[in-house]
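Notebook entry, structure prediction.
Reason for the run: the old model in the group folder had no record of what sequence produced it. Starting over properly, with the input documented here first.
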Amino acid sequence: MPTDLRREPHGEPYEFDSVYRDQRKGITKLTVEIPSSSNQAQTSRETSPSRWGTPEFMFYAIAFCLVVPIMFWIPIKLSSSTHPNYTAYSRRLSQGWMFGRKVDNTDHQYRTFRGNVPVLSLLVIFFLSSKAAYVRLNKRKQIFPSIREEDNLYLVPFIIAFSVLMLIGLHGMSALKVMTIFATNYAIAKYAAGSKLNPILTWVFNVAVLFASEKFSGFHYTSIHPSLGYLDTFDGVYRWHVGFNISMLRLISFNMDYFWACNLVGKPDSGQSLDYKDRPRTYHSLNMYRFPYYLAYALYPPLYIGGPIITYNDFLWQLCRPIPMPLRKTLGYLARFLVCILTLEFILHFMYVVAIKNTKAWAGDTVAELSMVGFWNLIIVWLKLLVPWRFFRLWALLDGVDPPENMVRCMVNNYSAKGFWRAWHRSYNLWIVRYIYIPLGGTGNVVFTTLLVFTFVALWHDLSFKLLAWGWLVSLFILPELIAQYLLPASKYGKNWWYRHICAFGAVFNILMMMAANLVGFVIGTDGMSYMLKQLFSTWEGIRFLFFACICLFIASQVMFEYREEEKRRGIYRRC
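New structure, fully documented this time:
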């Protein structure tokens, strides 16, 4: 649908444009700040007069005040101990810490992170204090006198030493498997160098390891020889193959960046400071693609477990030319992280929708109640990913490395399928663009590359039909938006009074389709989605609710449009 009110600037459809003349005030202070560069070409963009005080938006404000509290009240009511379905899922609840309430701690992914927050926090403190001691020792003893004072390459031995110790603590004797895989990947890069064998062997090797490690549960030493079985008993606290999909992205990044550097593809170093867009595509001299730097990158402690994903070129440029990291920015990011984790904890203490979903405890629930169970499950999926990603990114910021922000829009502040995927897991999105989308032709063959990209994304997450169906649905649901933008371009029709309202109708369709795809992929699967659709369309109650929901989404879309216009007035431009 034609939901982007601005003309798309030249570039790949999954890339981010820069933020320029940042003047956040008022409501735009809620916009997540990301590294940016000045873009003078954007400063002449026209903005519409503010609509916040118009009768139309006063009506929308009243609608928000009436509808949003109901959206909170429904799941809270379903989570009451007096509700008839409470006994069906109450055994899944745990003792909480907020207001004497129990907590819905049934999501395995967040439960694992939540239970390890104290240990991870101590690990962060130990890492930063050890680094500070290493820096003081180096300055006093001049361990690396040949290293220039303006770079941080002297930190590489510390990063490697700490990483190896952390790797052993995490994976036990399986750390040998990880190191073997990393060394083999490095050997492929060095052997193939600038030949076309490099990308072929790199992709074949890493995809084979990804699938094989999943199929064989990370491999066992007994499969080599029964006498090595005792090594399997020292498996650490974190199975290595669970997080290999993240490591795989770093391994491919190194090999591909080295391949392009050998062929001088990208931007040569100008000797000037590099912004967040230039760092990934500016290649280093070939002697900078060495094993110590590779190992420091692949095992970098703050980002090893869960990302965000940073390219090799970007990481090494940040060591070679450290970027300023204002304390105010880091403290502001810490405050955002605390607000996010407290918000998620509040939801889990008052809305037991994950337990309801897992036990299918929705007998007798109305269509509105079923929809809110699905909606709040999606909110929790967004938050449970946001919180760990921001924790690890905060750790990196405290260390002086600035990886991409993974979530730059709230899940409910999205109306465009393309924009949603630019804002969701952004570092992965940027990786996909650089290493898959552009090499396959990018905008030259949008349909094919989009289908291939989301098929890879689905299989990368998990080898299951549910996620494969999700990938194909996402690809399918992006097509109507692409077609509509072609038939009704903003450059031609954007100034017409009706265009904004047509966009809002398109946004309603987009939002419904995105919710359906993500419910299938990450919440209730195809069977649960079939049940929900049956409840929506088989009764007049369901049809009436769907009509009312579409009106609410239409209003929400208008508010999202205006929010982005307000960002433009404050000098913030984002294609999401």
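Summary: Confidence is low (pLDDT under 50) at residues 1-22, 36-44.
The old model has been moved to the deprecated folder.
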